[in-house]
Amino acid sequence: MQTKQVLELSEYEKHKFEVADIVRTTKALIGNSDSVAAGECAELMKNLAEDRFRVAVIGRFSRGKTSLMNAILGDRWLPTGIVPLTSVITTVTYGSAPRALVQNTTGGLRYEISLNELPEYVTQEKNPGNCKHVREVEVQLPSEILRRGFYFVDTPGLGSSIAENTRTTMEFLPQVDVVLLVSSFEGVLSEEEFQVLERLSLTSSRLYLVVNKSDLVSEPQRDEVLGFVQQQIQQMHGGESPRVFTVSAEQALEAKARHDPELLQRSEIMVLEEDLIRFLTEEKNSLILARNGERLLQILDRQPQATNTAELRTRTQRLLSSITLGSSGTVHSAISTDNILTIAPRRTGVVCEVCHGVLHRVLDFLAGYQYKLSFDAATREAHAERGGFCCFHTWQYETLASARGVCSAYPATLQRISDAVNELSRDGTLGRQASARLRQYLSPQCPACELCAEATEEICMRLAATISETAPVPGICTRHLPALLQYMDSPAVATKLLQSVSATLKRTSEDMQRCGLKQDALRRDLISEEERKSPEVALALIAGHKQLIQTCEVR
After folding, report:
1. Cα–Cα distance measured from residue 133 to residue 131, given in angstroms and rounded to the nearest whole number
2. How far is CA 65 from CA 19, 75, 80, 116, 209, in A?
3. 374, 275: one domain
4. Residue 533 is assigned to a structural domain of this protein
5. Are residues 124 and 268 in the same domain?
6. Side-chain half-sphere exposure of 291, counting CA atoms within 13 A
7. pLDDT tens, position by position, for the chain (555 residues)?
8. Which domain holds residue 157?
9. Which of 382, 413, 448 is the C-terminal boundary of a domain?
10. Is residue 507 domain-resident?
11. What region does 246 belong to: left with phi over 0, alpha with psi -120 to 50, or beta?
12. In this structure, are residues 436 and 404 in contact, taking their beta carbons and an 8 Å threshold?
C-alpha cells in the first residue's frame, strides 16, 4: 500500500536547502538577461528563508497552556501561574541564548529584557490595560525544536475579565498553521473553548485539542472525559473533527529534566509531538517545497536553451518526485524518544576543549618566556642553540614582545644562523646537498611546539577519563579527535564521542546553509548568533584553532 512520505524535520530542511541551491544556481545563470525571472528567484529565496511552522497555543487561564509550551520546548522557560494576560502576543522563536525583545505599539526599535522581566510586560498585574503600550514580545530560546523552524505563539488567555484578550487571540488565528487549544481535566470544554472550536471549523487552520493535567485523574475518569469530548467534537465537526490528545505537561517537563523515558511515555507528550511534527512537515511539503519547486520549473522552462538549464530541470524534477511520491511500507515516526529527551547544546564559545586548553598553555608559556629572553642571558643562549622558535611561534612571540624585547632576545639567534650560512658558503657545497644542509641548520627545536605536543597528550588523557556513557561529551575538533580516541577504553564511550562529533559537524553544516540562505534572501535580520558564527566554527572544527596552526600534531 502506498502511503504519503513523512519527512522528518532534518530531512525536510535537507530538501529545502537543495531547492535553495538550485534557485541560487538558476539566478546566477540568468544573470541580467531576464530581470523578471531574476526577481522571481529572489522571491523564492525569500520564501525559503522565512519558512516557519507557526503554532498558536490558546486556552483559558490556568489550563496549563504555557506549561504545555514549556514541555514541548524542553525546559521551564516561560513564566507560568500568572493571572490574566494583557492583549500582548508573545512569540517564541529560536535564539542562541535566552532573551526577550519588546516591540511597542508606538513603533521604534525593539529593546531587550530578561526572561525574568516578562511578567512586567505581559501580565495584567504588572501592565494593567497595556499601559506600557506593548504590541508584541518575542522570546528567543535555545530549543532544538525552535531551531528546526517551529515558531510558537502564546496568545492572551480566553475567558478572562478583559474582553480584549479573547478578541486579540481570535484575530491572530488566521495567521498560523496549527492551533493547539488547551483544556484540562479540571473542567473540560468551557463555553469559550466551544466558541473557538466553532470558529476554527470555518477556517483552514489545523486544530489540535489538548486536554492537560491527565496525571490528576484515574484511568477510568480519563476515558470517560475523553469519550465525552470526542462525542461533542464529532457533533460539531462531523467527519473533519480535530484530533484530541491527553497529556500531563508537568510530567513531561519533569521527564525531560530527569531524562526519564518511562515518565515521558506516561505524560503522553510524545504522541502529540510526533503528530504535530508529522502534520507540519507534510503541510510544508505540499505548500512550500512542492510549490516553490514547481515555480522554479516554470522559471527554468522560460529560459532559452543557451542558458544550459537542462541539468537544473532534471535536478528539480527529481527533487519534486522525492518530496511528493509516496513510500511503501511502514512510515517511521518523525521524532524519537532520544531526540525528545536531548536538549540542544548550549554554546560556550569553545569549539574544541583540546584547542582551548593547549592555546592557554602555549600563550602562558610565551608570555613568561619572552620576559626571560629579554633579561636572562642563559635563556637567550639556549634559545639561539635551539634555533629559535618555529615560524608560526616566532610571530606569536612577536605579538607578545616589545620591540626592545626582540632586540634583546634575537641577536644571538641571528648570529648562530649567520655562522651556519657562512660555513656553508666556505664549503663550496652546491645543489641538493647544500639545500639539505641549510634546511638542517634552519630547523629549530621549537620549545613552544614541544609544549603543545605535551599539552595535547595530557589534555586528551584527562578528557578521556571524564567521558562516560552518562557524562556529556566535550567539544572536540577533527584535528584532535584521533588523539582523544587513542585513550578510549570503552567501545560504547568511543561510539558516543564519534556520534557527538558527527552531530556537531552536521549541526554546523545546517547552520551555515541557513545563514547562506538568509543572506541570499536579504533577510539578515533572521540570522541567529549560531548561524552568524557558523563559518568560523566550521573551519575550527576541521582545522583546529587558528592560533594553533602547525602545532598540536599527534605524536
Report:
1. 5
2. 36, 14, 9, 19, 11
3. no
4. no
5. yes
6. 13
7. 233 334 567 778 888 899 999 999 988 888 878 888 888 899 899 888 888 888 888 887 778 888 899 999 988 888 776 654 556 778 899 988 899 999 998 888 899 998 888 888 887 778 887 888 888 899 999 888 888 888 888 876 555 444 454 555 556 565 677 888 888 888 777 777 777 777 766 666 678 889 999 988 888 888 888 888 888 777 766 656 778 899 999 999 999 988 899 999 999 999 998 888 888 777 666 667 777 888 888 888 887 665 677 888 888 888 888 776 543 333 333 333 333 333 334 445 689 999 999 999 999 999 999 999 988 999 999 999 988 999 899 999 999 999 999 999 999 999 988 988 888 888 777 778 888 888 877 888 899 999 999 999 999 999 998 888 777 888 999 999 999 999 998 999 999 999 999 999 999 999 999 999 999 999 998 898 889 999 999 999 999 998 887 544 433
8. 53-279
9. 448
10. no
11. beta
12. no
DSSP-derived 3-state class of residue 243: strand
88 shares its domain with 201: yes
Give the torsion through C-alpha atoms of 505, 507, 513, 519, to 10 deg: -120
Query: Does one domain contain both 125 and 251?
Result: yes
Which pTM value belongs to this model?
0.76
Rounded Cα distance between 145 and 220, Å, is: 33
Query: From the CB of residue 50, how many other CB atoms can be counted at a distance below 10 Å?
Result: 12
Cell of 411: 641577536
Among candidate residues 400, 428, 448, the one where a domain is terminated: 448
Left, alpha or beta for 552 (phi > 0: left; psi -120 to 50: alpha)? Answer: left
Q: Is 184 helix (H, G, I), strand (E, B) or coil?
A: strand
Question: Is 545:473 a contact under the CB 8 Å cutoff?
Answer: no
Closest CA to 319 of 282, 289, 287, 283: 289
